Amino acid sequence: MSGAGQDWEDESPERLYVITGGRSGAAAQTFSLDLVTLIVAKAAPRPGIQPEHAAIMRLCHSPLSVAELSAYLKLPVSVVTVLLGDLLADGRVVARAPVPPAELPDRSLIEAVIHGLQQL
Fold first, then answer.
1. pLDDT confidence of residue 1
2. Helix (H) or strand (E) run with residue 6 in it
3. What is the distance between the alpha carbons of residues 103 and 98, in angstroms, rounded to a whole number?
4. How far apart are the C-alpha atoms of 62 and 120, rounded to whole Å?
5. Which helix (H) or strand (E) holds 110?
6. What is d(CA 66, CA 80) in angstroms, rounded to the nearest whole number?
7. Beta-carbon neighbour count of residue 94 at 10 Å?
8. For a Cys-Cys bond, which of 62, 67, 70, 102 suits 35, CB 3.0-4.6 Å?
9. What is d(CA 81, CA 78) in angstroms, rounded to the nearest whole number?
10. Tens digits of residue pLDDT in 55-114
11. Which CATH number fits domain 4-119: 3.40.50.300, 3.30.310.40, 1.10.10.10, 1.10.3720.10?
12. Which of 80, 69, 84 is nearest to 31 (CA)?
C-alpha cells in the first residue's frame, strides 16, 4: 500500500475535483474569460482562503493573463477559470480585456510624413 502523499498526485482528477468543488469551468463562469483576459488582484489574500485562491491573488499583484496563471499554477485552464469566477464574484480580483492593438494610421498620412522627412 502506498503512502497518502503518493495517492494524492498534483494533477489527479480527485485533486482537481476538490479544488473546484466539483464545478466545471462552463457552469461556474459567469464572467467572460478567455486565455488573454488580464487578471489583477485588488488586495493581498486574507488568511483562511483556499490555497489556490491565495496563490492567484499573490501572482496577480500585476496583471497576468488566464493562460499565464494556468501555467504558473500548473493547473488546467478550466480549473483556473472556476477559481477566477469565485474571486471575481467576491470582488477580490478584476478581469479586464487586454489592450487592443493600435490601429495603423491612414496611408496618406504616412506618405506625407515620409515626404516631409525627405524634404529635411
1. 39
2. helix 4-7
3. 15
4. 44
5. helix 107-119
6. 7
7. 14
8. 67
9. 5
10. 999 999 999 999 999 999 999 888 899 899 889 988 999 998 877 777 877 888 889 999
11. 1.10.10.10
12. 84
Cell of 14: 480527485
Contacts 24+ apart (CB under 8 A), 89-95: 89/30, 91/42, 92/41, 92/42, 92/43, 92/45, 92/53, 92/57, 93/39, 93/40, 93/41, 93/42, 93/56, 93/57, 93/60, 94/39, 94/40, 94/42, 95/31, 95/32, 95/33, 95/37, 95/38, 95/39
Q: How far is CA 4 from CA 1, 8, 98, in A?
A: 9, 6, 42
Do 73 and 43 meet the contact criterion of CB atoms below 8 Å apart?
no
Cα 83 from Cα 81, distance rounded (Å) = 5
What single letter denotes the amino acid at residue 46? R
